[in-house]
């Protein structure tokens, strides 16, 4: 009689559909390899169907999240932002209207929209570049870090760590550094002062 081979513990771990990951492992698994490319889309408003118009990363992200985030709060924000961001030119021109809307949503800290907001901010940085960096230094960096500060106060009451939020914020800051590093290198002194105020205190 042939004995049925026993499944090793290692094999069981390999086929397990879900494996708990420590915070250190989750941070190490963040992928920041972003493909630099500008996408082009056909538009029905063009006279020649073969013509192409450049759209912004921000607009693409806005539409992408409209298929994933069906919360009432995002639907409202999407309806406010979409008329301002149909093209890259519109995003640049309307940045003074777009940024306050994003900031207000960040300050409200609705958990249903935080991941979406952080991605929209990253994509807006890709579009605006140096124009975005001004607002990043003025208030956006502080607003993003405040997500963690306020979350920490809640965690102390509930005795648990919001690793998902920590990962989302860390990923956002990492992507922002990736897309703005050339600008940041020229401003290291003030950038260090800004970072040390919040991250090293």
Explain this structure.
There is one protein chain. By secondary structure, the chain is mostly helical. The protein has one domain. Helices cover 66% and strands 2% of the residues. The protein is built from ten helices and two strands, in the order H-H-E-E-H-H-H-H-H-H-H-H. Strands 1-2 form a two-stranded antiparallel sheet. Helix 6 runs antiparallel to helix 7, helix 6 runs parallel beside helix 8 and helix 7 packs antiparallel against helix 8. 24% of the residues are buried. About 10% of the residues have low confidence. One of its GO terms (cellular component) is 90S preribosome. InterPro entries: ARM-type_fold, SSU_processome_comp_20.
What Rg, in angstroms, do the CA atoms define? 21 Å
Order of helices and strands: HHEEHHHHHHHH
In what order do the strands lie side by side in the largest sheet?
Answer: 1-2
Query: Percent range for helical residues?
Result: 55-70%
Q: Which class of secondary structure composition applies to the elements? A: mainly alpha
Count, helices = 10
**Poorly predicted parts:** 32-52
Query: Sheet with the most strands?
Result: 2 strands, antiparallel
Q: What is the number of beta strands?
A: 2
Task: Give the overall shape, derived from the CA principal axes.
Answer: globular
- Whole-number total of structural domains: 1
| Spatial gap, N to C terminus | 68 Å
Query: What percent of residues are in strands?
Result: under 5%
Calculate the mean pLDDT score and round it: 79
């Amino acid at each position: 009689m042939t004995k049925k081979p026993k499944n090793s513990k290692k094999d069981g771990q390999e086929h397990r559909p879900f494996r708990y990951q420590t915070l250190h492992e989750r941070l190490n698994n963040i992928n920041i390899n972003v493909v630099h490319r500008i996408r082009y889309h056909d538009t029905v408003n063009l006279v020649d169907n073969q013509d192409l118009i450049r759209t912004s990363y921000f607009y693409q992200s806005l539409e992408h999240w409209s298929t994933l985030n069906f919360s009432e709060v995002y639907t409202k924000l999407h309806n406010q932002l979409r008329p301002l961001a149909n093209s890259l030119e519109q995003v640049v021109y309307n940045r003074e209207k777009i940024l306050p809307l994003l900031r207000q949503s960040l300050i409200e800290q609705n958990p249903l929209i935080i991941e979406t907001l952080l991605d929209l901010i990253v994509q807006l940085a890709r579009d605006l570049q140096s124009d975005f960096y001004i607002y990043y230094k003025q208030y956006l960096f502080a607003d993003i870090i405040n997500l963690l500060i306020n979350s920490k106060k809640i965690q102390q009451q509930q005795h648990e760590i919001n690793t998902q939020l920590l990962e989302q914020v860390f990923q956002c800051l990492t992507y922002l550094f990736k897309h703005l590093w050339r600008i940041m290198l020229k401003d290291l002194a003030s950038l260090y002062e800004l970072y040390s105020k919040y991250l090293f205190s």
